[in-house]
Design goal:
The protein is α+β, with helices and mostly antiparallel strands. The protein is built from 16 helices and 12 strands. It binds protoporphyrin IX containing FE.
């Protein structure tokens, strides 16, 4: 047990990455993160996974500030990965308006040209990871039409009571203890359980599904893929495992439908279309990876932000329903759990002064766009009462805009309603242990403390 509550100390570890007791030069007493520009524009290398992405948050923010101001379409060589030889590099799109423009012009900047990650996915990967997020119209529109039925208002309303039940159980389990690892015991437990319950995946498979998704999304962190292991093989194996699980379930539900989502997806036809088992498998993988780690990290960063900003947390506690919608969106903007998505130029194209040629890769850095002062007043301040929060945490308002955004918002709101009601003094009791990744802004562990109930 820590001798002093983290939330009662003046500290800036979420900015510097280190637990420190007195305010660092990077953070003011009002909880605002002050970006530090330690790198000259030519020294910034976004492909340096172990270097740039492990820097203190304030320095990363400073580097993106420099890029937005001085080189909004900086070109970088690609990182070396196990997924194949690096390509010709990518443009880092860092300004808010440019991220929106690229997202809304799928005919010029497509999602199907290899993948939405930096490297083009080899064909064996596309079988499992080639879901709609990596497709363009008309295939994307067809799939989105079919799976959208999973996210109708009625299904979301049904899910709401499941979300509330699951949140209550999770909080009740840790409540008597007075402390817990917030990530694994609270934040991670919710989204995976919801997706599995919606799809009808049996309880006995939760742990397996969690382990495989950790491998897929945490592939660049040595903790999730043992040293010396081939990352591509580990990710492919995890994808195959999840795909097989879903094909089995889909086969059962086609023979004996229930009222779960899997039954709806494999049995309902829209204009003569329904999902094939392969499409079901890759959609499932997309759902568990897209809906699981993202929501978990939003909830975890939320506790960090609310601990750093006790006055906002008090305000939210005093008027939960009145402030919930703004608070949830501010948590997603602040956390930006998905750091980027890639687009590929389909031919000669232009954004502002910048020209692109066919095949050029553009990485849309949502984290940077969400700190752009042309779109957000005082962008480095966490403010649950922020107005007109058109953040790009769920994407840049194009055809791939997050399908699960409403579900995610509900999950975050319901979890915080439960937490603030049952454990009103819960705080982050130490620094978040960050995931080493340039794709997911993740927290692996976060100690939390509260008065036992
Ligand atoms: C805070 C939580 C979440 C964040 C930050 C997030 C973020 C994103 C982002 C940035 C995209 C890409 C948007 C684009 O390319 O324009 C996306 C797409 C997607 N998300 Fe989410 N997401 C979250 C939760 C969820 C949940 C809970 C689900 C489902 C259970 C989900 C399912 C999807 C799907 C299916 C897509 C692909 C949509 C398409 O290609 O048409 N997401 N999400």
């Amino acid at each position: 047990m820590l001798s002093a509550r983290y939330g009662q100390r003046v500290s800036a570890w979420c900015v510097t990455g280190e637990p420190i007791i007195t305010p660092g030069p990077s953070m003011r007493h009002d909880g605002r993160v002050e970006p530090i520009e330690t790198l000259a524009v030519d020294d910034i290398n976004l492909s340096d996974l172990g270097g740039f992405w492990t820097r203190p948050v304030a320095e990363r923010e400073g580097a993106f500030l420099t890029l937005r101001r001085e080189r909004p379409f900086a070109h970088f060589a690609e990182p070396i990965t196990d997924f194949g030889p690096p390509g010709a590099g990518y443009y880092a799109v860092t300004r808010y308006q440019d991220v929106i423009t690229a997202s809304r012009s799928p005919e010029l900047f497509c999602s199907g040209g290899g993948s939405t990650q930096i490297v083009d996915l080899p064909p064996e990967f596309l079988e499992y990871f080639g879901s709609m997020i990596n497709m363009d119209d008309p295939r994307h529109a067809r799939l989105r039409r079919i799976v959208s039925r999973a996210f109708t208002p009625k299904r979301l309303a049904d899910a709401e009571s499941t979300v509330a039940d699951v949140a209550r159980r999770i909080v009740a389990e840790v409540a008597p203890r007075g402390s817990c690892d917030f990530v694994s015991e609270v934040a991670a437990a919710l989204p995976l359980r919801i997706i599995c319950e919606m799809l009808g995946i049996p309880d006995s498979q939760y742990a397996y599904v969690l382990e495989q998704t950790n491998t897929i999304l945490g592939a660049s962190d040595p903790e999730y893929v043992p040293e010396g292991a081939n990352i591509a093989t580990a990710v492919l194996t995890a994808g195959i495992g999840l795909g097989e699980l879903m094909k089995e379930l889909g086969t059962q539900r086609r023979a004996q439908p229930t009222d779960d989502l899997t039954s709806a997806l494999v049995n309902t036809e829209i204009d003569g279309e329904r999902l094939t088992f392969d499409e079901l498998a890759s959609f499932f993988i997309l759902l568990v990876v897209a809906g699981n780690e993202t929501t978990r990290n939003a909830i975890s960063w939320g506790l960090v932000a609310l601990t750093e900003n006790p006055e906002q947390r008090r305000a939210w506690g005093a008027d939960f329903d009145g402030l919930a919608s703004g608070a949830v969106d501010e948590i997603v903007r602040w956390a930006t759990p998905v750091i980027f998505m890639r687009r590929t130029a389909t031919g000669p194209a232009q954004i502002g002064e910048q020209s692109f040629a066919a095949g050029d890769k553009l990485l849309l850095f949502y984290n940077s766009a969400n700190r752009d002062d042309s779109a957000f007043e005082d962008p480095f301040r966490f403010d649950i009462t922020r107005q007109d929060n058109r953040h790009v945490g769920f994407g840049g308002y194009g055809p791939h805009f997050c399908l699960g955004a409403h579900l995610a918002r509900r999950e975050i709101a319901v979890m915080y309603r439960e937490l603030l009601a049952t454990l009103p003094d819960i705080v982050a009791a130490g620094p978040p242990e960050r995931l080493q990744s340039m794709f997911i802004n993740g927290i692996k562990r976060l100690p939390a403390e509260f008065t036992p109930r």
